Amino acid sequence: MKKAIITGITGQDGAYLSEFLLKKGYAVFGLIRRSSSFNTGRINHIYTDPHDPNGRLKLIFGDLTDGSNLAKVFHEIKPDEVYNLGAQSHVRVSFDQPVYTADVDALGTLRILEALRSVKTPVRFYQASSSEMFGKVLQTPQTEKTPFYPRSPYGCAKVYAFWQTVNYRESYGMFNCNGILFNHESPRRGETFVTRKITRGATRIKLGLQQKLFLGNLDARRDWGFAGDFVEAMWLMMQQDVADDYVIATGESHSVRDLLDETFEILDLDWKKYVEIDPRYYRPAEVDTLLGDSTKARKVLNWQPKVNFKELVRMMVESDLRLAQRDKTKLRHQESDEEDVKMIMAQTAAGSLGHKK
Ligand code: NAP
Ligand code: G4F
Question: Which ligand 2 atom is at minimum distance from the Cα of 287?
């Protein structure tokens, strides 16, 4: 049975990739960070009892800032494949936490590469590179040959990690791949990324749980795909005879405004009545437009996306509508529970439920 280690298993892509690898028959080992509250919500449905000898998903505590722990994990598990999806992945936040972002996203990758270099069994390595590396784009559409021009601490950290991945491949003959993935979304997308923020906000507005939606730059354009399609490309890269780097994208670009049109139209609402601009969501430097050309992946990996923009938005709206409905029901129950508690307390104070002496 093949063994894969996934860093960032609790994130959006980690959850989809785990499901995908488990279906392929892999034993999956996920690195998780210790957290003061549960952080495994996206993978609870596939998690098995840690003592079950047949359980194929195991979680191990670890952190990309702790190199000695990474080396220990690799030596103990001797994986066939390592997928490095762990990152401080929010571009806006990287301006507030540039050093931390570099430590996790750039040096974290280097720590993995160094640890893997000392593992004696052959290991294949996947690095979650990003279209953010193209930043202020020098060519459209962007291919594997387009020069990088990062526009954020996050983008700079990912460029560093990209080149170290290539460098270790060329210097030490390691099987290292970079997947240069354009934006990919899903119902499991973090709530502060723009797609999910919009589908979540719009559905809550529809059900009366929220009045307004505050956003930043509505003119930015992105090549948005479905995360479930994109994790298949990660795996395909790792099954080739030769390690290489690939752009993974849909080849369609839409603005944040298009996303608002599409989302609110499904809900029969006019977004202009609800959306307000909040400059806090502007970035010191913006990536205005991204559009990927994944011809190489389509030819070599025989990969192509299955879900288009409209289908993606509908999938996210339906899922968020279900969650909003659940929140509304919970709120109603809470209100009626609150009434019950008040009534019981009032009766107690009045003596009708008072303690007998
Ligand atoms: P995500 O949902 O934000 O997940 C990030 C994961 O990294 C989480 O599991 C998080 O753990 C973990 N993590 C954060 N800091 C860590 C640390 N110090 N040590 C170990 N793990 C840490 O991101 P995603 O959307 O799934 O993206 C996966 C990867 O692809 C990331 O590297 C991202 O930068 C890259 N990428 C994403 C896209 C996209 O559009 N989604 C496009 C290109 C590249 P917690 O749950 O504990 O926070
Ligand atoms: O959804 P976003 O935060 O994604 P961004 O910055 O493109 O980064 C994502 O994709 C990258 C791949 O290119 C990944 F590497 C990265 O990890 C992450 O997954 O923002 C998209 C666009 C930006 O131009 C932003 O300025 O939407 C604009 N935007 C407008 N209002 C907003 C908002 N973004 C966020 N997060 N929140 C807003 O209120």
Answer: 24
Amino acid letter for position 59: L
Query: E strands along 168-299, which residues?
Result: 175-181, 184-185, 213-215, 221-222, 225-226, 245-248, 254-255, 275-277
> What domain count does the chain have?
1
Per the annotation, the verdict on 130 as an active-site residue is yes
CATH number at residue 24: 3.40.50.720
CB atoms within 10 A of CB 306: 10
In the predicted structure, residue 52 carries a pLDDT above the cut 70: no
> In which band, very low, low, confident or very high, does the pLDDT at 355 lie, cut at 50, 70 and 90?
low
Model pTM score: 0.95
In a domain, 7, yes or no: yes
Query: Could you tell me if 249 and 291 are in contact, meaning their C-beta atoms sit under 8 angstroms apart?
Result: yes
Is residue 292, in this structure, part of any structural domain at all?
yes
244 close to ligand 1 (CB < 6 Angstrom): no
Residue 8 backbone zone (phi > 0: left; psi -120 to 50: alpha; other: beta): left
Q: Which DSSP letter does residue 121 get?
A: S
Domain membership of residue 95 as a residue range = 3-189+222-252+287-307
Instruction: Provide the b/e sequence for 141-180 (b: ≥16 CB within 10 Å).
Output: bbbeebebebbbbbbbbbbbbbbbbbebbeeeebbbbbbb
